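User: Fold this, then the next.

Assistant: Folding the first:
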Amino acid sequence: MTHSEQAKRAEETERLRVSAEELSWALRGVNRAAAEVDHALGSKINLRPLDYSAVGHVMSREGEPLGPAELGNRLGISTGSATELVDRLERAGHLIRIRDGKDRRRVHLRPTEEAVDRILGELRPLFDSLDALTTEFTSDEQRAIGRYLRLATERLSHFADGLTDAAKSERTRPAHDDD
């Protein structure tokens, strides 16, 4: 059974358990398909899933600084593991370290031009296809779809932040003996 068939079967099972609006189901499908793209692209460019995810986090910062420790937090790995990951990605030519201009102890991560060009080059046909898809909708439909997707993105991000905060809280909570 292919990954796509497994995802469809999982959706069918989930639909039997949970009721949701069709737009929400469609968004779940988009999220699953995007994860499949990430997995396939990572494999194609010979990056392990964690490595591909790390490069994605660095690329998505769009000029905002991201250091190895913050990357480790985002990936759920220790600072030492994050340093090893960054070392590996730097040696492979995917990331570079840049010293902070104000605080030389701080390091910011940037993707290399070659990594960005390779990843965006691989994604170009998908981007072109999605851009062409928009022409199938009226301007009003495009605005409504765009609004829904922007608001859904905000809610997904807010939910992820809440999960991250809860996980941090659970990790720092002292263990109590209840005997």
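Now the next one, as you asked:
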Amino acid sequence: MGEDGDLQVRSVAELAAGDEIEAWHRGRLAHRGRVSRTLEDIDLFWIIDARTGARRLLDLEQLSVRRVPAGRPTAVVGSPGAPAAQQEPAVPKPGPGAWRQVAFVEAG
């Protein structure tokens, strides 16, 4: 699998449990994760989403699916294709007054 053309998944029969994939929709990364199960009869497969840890059922007819080679940086979910290393962190910066101190008083 040296070239990008080899990474494109055209059929669920090409996938196996444990494969790392990216699923793209309209030029944006929609899902990334590890294949947990395939349903070849209906061209669907389950992944464990890398971002949320949730199990997701994906449809090859609705998404463009690519294998992720080991050791390759991947895009951030929702980005138009930039590697994760070039993305800004998704953590919002706190503004003035964002931090509050809370004191707990034990009744007694």
